[in-house]
């Protein structure tokens, strides 16, 4: 086509028609400067499109049409390619490419890739979600990177002084918050990290819940329900299917345990040290490394034993009570395994510090004290129906005194005394019968008789008074007869 401008000839419509041009193609100047219509761009007065076939490293099919605007279309069906792309050129043949790779279902994946001699896909948006570092996202956002040198990191940063966090919602309601504590937890502080669950915060391993902090602040391990809860009470519940244990370690070496086996409880210090008990920030008792129980003191006194109690206040040093109104056992039971009767040891010893021993109960059962005085609480205010004792002459005269040996006496010493069954025939009131029990206070089904020796001595004293009276009467008769 040529246009002649001579000032006299007009331009007519046929003069502007070039039959070599294709309808709708964008005309541009070719290499020789001539106008050409072989451009891949078309313009129909509304839409600008690209219909050139482009083979790339992207996977996809070949169709894409837009109702209006700019349509970049791949009209061919390459083995690997994109339906359309936008190429942002750079220096040294380094490009960034944004394209659409259409799937068989008709939804186009949006792909972002880099190009420097070959394509390297960086990001893809599919019907499932956005994948960064992966072409097959497994969720709404899938971040993936194969890097043997650098850690795979996700940065969530607020470059100002305001808070930053991740808010998780479900069906229009908040589930939890992760971020700066000042944002996620009331009063948490801007420099602290916070995790806040609206209801319960669960920790799981292998899709199984292992621990939770419930909405009341109770920390439950191995269970979903706190035990022995109360308003305002901090609670940690550790639950096991057969047992539960808390281990305390120092330097990866086990030092102590709190253990319960379902029936029995164990508190142990595995180190060669003591176990201390405190109240009001003050030590009250301890079990030392030798197993001694120390109360009110931190060391075993000279001559002390397994239990050492010190009371510095003006109070009862040891108060042992059996408050059961139907109690039938022993309030205090002193037991030794050594079977001797020669004062090899004592069941009880009472000593004034720095002075001397005042009273002892020996292995033989003998009770000794420094003055031989044994008293009876005998105040008249405690008694009623007081009358003179009757004659004890016949009872004392009927008492049989025997020599014998105790069966369990290793020395088989000859002793002098009475037999309970014989005394019972003379004066049954002098006999007490005791239930036989084992070391654990279990009833053995037998009994043992004992004699109220002090009462027997009282009866003997009364009989002695009678004898003295008779002697005095005989002496008076003899004096009257001048004999």
Summarize the structure.
By secondary structure, the protein is mainly beta. Helix content is 9%, strand content 33%.
Any idea what the CATH superfamily of the domain at 390-480 is called?
A: Winged helix-like DNA-binding domain superfamily/Winged helix DNA-binding domain
Largest sheet: number of strands, sense, barrel closure? 6 strands, mixed
The span between the termini is: 193 Å
Share in helix: under 10%
Name the CATH architecture of the domain at 390-480.
Orthogonal Bundle
Number of helices: 4
Helix vs. strand class: mainly beta
CATH topology of the domain at 390-480: Arc Repressor Mutant, subunit A
Kindly report the spatial arrangement of strands forming the biggest sheet. Answer: 6-7-8-9-10-11
- Mean model confidence by pLDDT: 81
Total strand count, please? 32
Radius of gyration: 54 Å
Strand content: 25-35%
Outline the low-pLDDT stretches.
52-69, 75-81
- Structural shape: rod-shaped
CATH class of the domain at 390-480: Mainly Alpha
């Amino acid at each position: 086509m040529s246009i002649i401008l001579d000032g006299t000839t007009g331009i007519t419509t046929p003069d502007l028609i070039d039959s070599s041009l294709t309808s709708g193609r964008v005309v541009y100047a070719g290499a020789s400067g001539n106008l050409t219509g072989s451009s891949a761009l078309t313009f129909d007065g509304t839409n600008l499109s690209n219909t050139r076939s482009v083979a790339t490293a992207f996977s996809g099919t070949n169709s894409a049409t837009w109702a209006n605007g700019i349509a970049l279309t791949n009209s061919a069906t390459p083995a690997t390619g994109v339906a359309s792309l936008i190429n942002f050129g750079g220096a040294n043949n380094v490009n960034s490419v944004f394209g659409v790779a259409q799937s068989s279902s008709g939804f186009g994946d949006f792909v972002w890739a880099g190009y420097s001699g070959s394509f390297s896909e960086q990001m893809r948006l599919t019907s499932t979600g956005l994948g960064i570092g992966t072409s097959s996202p497994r969720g709404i956002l899938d971040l993936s990177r194969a890097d043997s040198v650098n850690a795979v990191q996700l940065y969530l940063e607020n470059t100002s002084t305001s808070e930053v966090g991740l808010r998780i919602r479900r069906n229009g309601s908040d589930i939890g918050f992760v971020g700066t504590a000042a944002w996620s937890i009331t009063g948490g502080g801007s420099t602290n990290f916070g995790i806040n669950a609206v209801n319960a915060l669960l920790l799981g391993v292998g899709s199984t819940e292992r621990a939770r902090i419930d909405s009341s602040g109770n920390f439950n391990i191995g269970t979903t329900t706190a035990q022995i809860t109360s308003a305002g009470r901090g609670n940690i519940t550790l639950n096991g299917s057969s047992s539960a244990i808390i281990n305390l370690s120092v330097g990866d070496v086990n030092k102590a345990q709190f253990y319960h086996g379902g029936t029995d409880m164990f508190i142990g210090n595995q180190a060669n040290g003591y176990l201390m008990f405190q109240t009001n920030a003050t030590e009250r008792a301890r079990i030392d490394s030798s197993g001694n129980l120390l109360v009110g003191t931190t060391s075993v006194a000279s001559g002390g034993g397994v239990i050492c109690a010190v009371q510095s206040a003006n109070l009862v040093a040891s108060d042992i009570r059996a408050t059961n109104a139907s109690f039938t056992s022993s309030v205090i039971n002193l037991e030794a395994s050594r079977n001797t009767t020669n004062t090899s040891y004592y069941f009880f010893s009472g000593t004034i510090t720095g002075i001397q021993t005042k009273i002892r109960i020996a292995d033989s059962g003998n009770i000794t004290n420094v003055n031989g005085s044994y008293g009876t609480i005998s105040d008249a205010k405690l008694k009623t129906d007081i009358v003179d004792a009757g004659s004890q002459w016949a009872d004392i005269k009927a008492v049989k005194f025997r020599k014998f040996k105790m069966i369990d006496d290793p020395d088989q010493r000859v002793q002098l005394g009475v037999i309970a069954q014989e005394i019972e025939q003379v004066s049954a009131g002098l006999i007490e019968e005791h239930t036989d029990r084992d070391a654990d206070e279990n009833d053995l089904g037998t009994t043992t008789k004992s004699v109220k020796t002090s009462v027997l001595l009282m009866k003997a004293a009364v009989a002695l008074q009678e004898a003295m009276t008779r002697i005095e009467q005989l002496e008076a008769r003899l004096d009257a007869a001048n004999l």
